[in-house]
């Protein structure tokens, strides 16, 4: 739980664009983001389910629902909603290579999701999460033409020392496509905030990447961590304001 609500992360960081995830796409949510310049919606869904351990204790767990049926339905919803909310510019296929592997996604599967997204609004863009450890041509050759925008993330913060190599490789693989650099506040492999030296290493490269046309922007994950990782969040906010 966080004290920050939907859209408040943009206000905190002084930004005008949002990547909206973790909840279903509906008019109530998008109305809270209608003042922003641009919104990208996630078309996979994070759901809760009841868990019971061997002693009968009940709890709740979150899981990532990314079946083709769910993603097509959400893509269709985003397409229709974009007619009422013109700042909706596209949809995110989160952890796409994971879905290709675990769900057996074929190019035709992604093509169906893409078609659903563009059915009511052909201008919407298909965005995809890509991790630096996934940058092998064989992973993406069959899917490249289905992706309009790449969000490039480094999963383990210890690998940020190789960020230059990852950005260059991504630019080589996805030639001509916009690349947004993903910037974590939390390292989920450590179950801890991204160490400050690693966080600074990434952010201090961003202005140069932008100047050289290696990336087209950045994405911060996420607003719900601002109050949990205040040192990282306040440093990033100050860095953005200074640049």
Walk me through the structure:
- The protein is 36% helix and 24% strand.
- The chain is of the alpha/beta class.
- The radius of gyration is 18 Å and the shape is globular.
- A seven-stranded parallel β-sheet has the order 1-2-5-6-7-8-11. Strands 3-4 form a two-stranded antiparallel ribbon. Strands 9-10 form a two-stranded antiparallel ribbon.
- The mean pLDDT is 95.
- Helix 3 (68-81) runs parallel beside helix 5.
- The chain contains ten helices and eleven strands.
- It starts with 7 loop residues before the first helix and ends with a helix.
Describe this protein with a few key phrases:
two-stranded antiparallel ribbon, globular
SSE order and pairing:
Elements: H1 8-13, E1 17-20, H2 27-32, E2 38-42, E3 45-52, E4 58-65, H3 68-81, E5 88-93, H4 96-102, H5 107-118, E6 125-131, H6 137-140, E7 149-153, H7 163-173, E8 179-184, E9 186-187, E10 192-193, H8 196-203, H9 206-211, E11 217-221, H10 230-242
Parallel strand pairs: 1-2, 2-5, 5-6, 6-7, 7-8, 8-11
Antiparallel strand pairs: 3-4, 9-10
Helix pairs in contact: 3-5, 8-10
């Amino acid at each position: 739980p966080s004290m920050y609500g939907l859209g408040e992360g943009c206000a905190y960081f002084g930004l005008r664009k949002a990547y909206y995830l973790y909840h279903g796409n509906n008019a109530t949510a998008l109305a809270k983001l209608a003042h922003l310049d641009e919104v990208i919606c996630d078309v996979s869904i994070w759901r809760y389910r009841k868990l019971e351990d061997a002693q009968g204790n009940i709890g709740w767990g979150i899981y990532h629902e990314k079946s083709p049926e769910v993603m097509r339905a959400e893509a269709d919803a985003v397409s229709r909603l974009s007619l009422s909310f013109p700042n909706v510019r596209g949809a995110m296929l989160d952890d796409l290579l994971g879905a290709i592997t675990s769900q057996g996604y074929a190019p035709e599967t992604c093509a169906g999701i893409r078609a659903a997204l563009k059915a009511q609004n052909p201008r919407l863009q298909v965005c995809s999460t890509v991790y630096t450890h996934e940058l092998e041509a064989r992973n993406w050759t069959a899917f490249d033409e289905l992706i309009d925008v790449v969000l490039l993330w480094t999963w383990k913060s210890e690998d940020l020392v190789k960020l230059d190599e990852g950005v260059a490789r991504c630019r080589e693989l996805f030639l001509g496509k916009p690349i947004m650099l993903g910037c974590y506040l939390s390292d989920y492999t450590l179950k801890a905030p991204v160490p400050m030296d690693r966080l600074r290493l990434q952010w201090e490269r961003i202005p140069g990447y932008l100047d050289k046309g290696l990336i087209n922007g950045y994405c911060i994950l996420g607003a719900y961590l601002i109050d949990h990782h205040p040192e990282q969040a306040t440093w990033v906010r100050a860095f953005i304001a200074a640049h």
